[in-house]
Amino acid sequence: MRAVMLSGPGPVENLQVVEVPTPEPPPGWVRIRVKAFGLNRSELHTRLGYAEGVVFPRVPGIEATGVVDDPGTSDLTPGQQVATMMGGMGRTFDGGYAEYTVVPRAQVIPFASELPWPALGAVPETLQTAYGSLTTGLDLRAGQTLLIRGGTSSVGLAAAALARDLGATVLSTTRSPARLEALAAVGVTHPLVDDGAVAAQVRALVPDGVDAALELVGTPTLPDTLAATRVHGTVCFTGMLSNEWLVRDFYPIGYLPTGVRLTAYGGEASDLPAAVLQRYLDRIATGEVTLGPVHTYAMDDIRAAHTDLEHGTKVGKLVGLP
Question: What is the pLDDT of residues 92-106, one digit of tens each?
Fold first, then answer.
């Protein structure tokens, strides 16, 4: 089979399309014929050397969407549509940047959809992260206000769509005025230009501060996001678009505003119930929900895709097609 191989941490030139043996599923694992694979910041971090426990060379990719090719001893059937994500994909074992991938049955989610594969490939990890952040991370409820920091990322766009579907009022940020319309297109009520200090803008709209905030940029903007949140409100740290995630010399009383809660979210396939995946695929198909634009790349263009991923040149989800 053809696969993208990452020889080691470094520039995009370390990504090469190679021929490797098609993997065989050991007991309890399933082989999937990959139809589309999403690109994620996690793979960028792996390429830049920020991921722990990775043994190189490695096929990257923490998610894939396709059809069951060899179900092994599982309850799945050949040809069945499935998605898979996380669980060590692309780090401790080869991931989704390939024509075939082999993963544990426990992280395979069946679904049925007539959406095209590029659209399907954009959904699983993005939906899992957005859904988990809003539910487990924030316990967001209808009628509440939500601030999304890093709103034109794929997770930011998905979180806005899901929050609006839930009945929340959404404020979301972008550093580029040209991208404000992209935020409005997914249901953001108050698109904001991020100048590095948005708390004042937020409190001009919501004087007491928002009920919940989703931090996708990282530690450089986290103090300002906390400052935009009300007493007894919650901030969920999920993303690291800035590639910065450590708080140096953390002093909680000085760092956290009085009464503001800070949580984090980093989920697995088990955090995305099959019924939730199916529900949103159905709603995307009918046009009731959009998770934002999708940009596709052939496997041979993986270096261009990673360049766009690294520099944030696209709004929405990047998807590779084997």
Answer: 999 999 999 999 999
Whole-prediction pTM: 0.94
Amino acid identity of residue 315, one-letter, is V
DSSP per position, 163-210: HHHHT-EEEEEES-GGGHHHHHHTT-SEEEE--S--HHHHHHHSTT-E
The CA-atom distances, in angstroms, between 102 and each of 64, 153, 232, 273 are 10, 28, 44, 21
Tokens of 53: 């426990």
Asked whether 238 and 216 are in contact (CB, 8 A), the reply is yes
Give the tokens for residue 50.
Answer: 């920020």
Evaluate the CA torsion angle 298, 302, 307, 308 in order and state its sign: positive
Phi, psi values for residue 215, rounded to 5°: -95, 110
Question: What are the tens digits of pLDDT across the range 191-221?
Answer: 999 999 999 999 999 999 999 999 999 999 9
- Residue 259: count other Cβ atoms within 10 Å of its Cβ: 10
What is the spatial order of strands in the sheet that 261-264 belongs to?
A: 190-193, 169-174, 145-149, 210-215, 229-237, 261-264
Residue 125, number of CB atoms within 10 A of its CB: 32
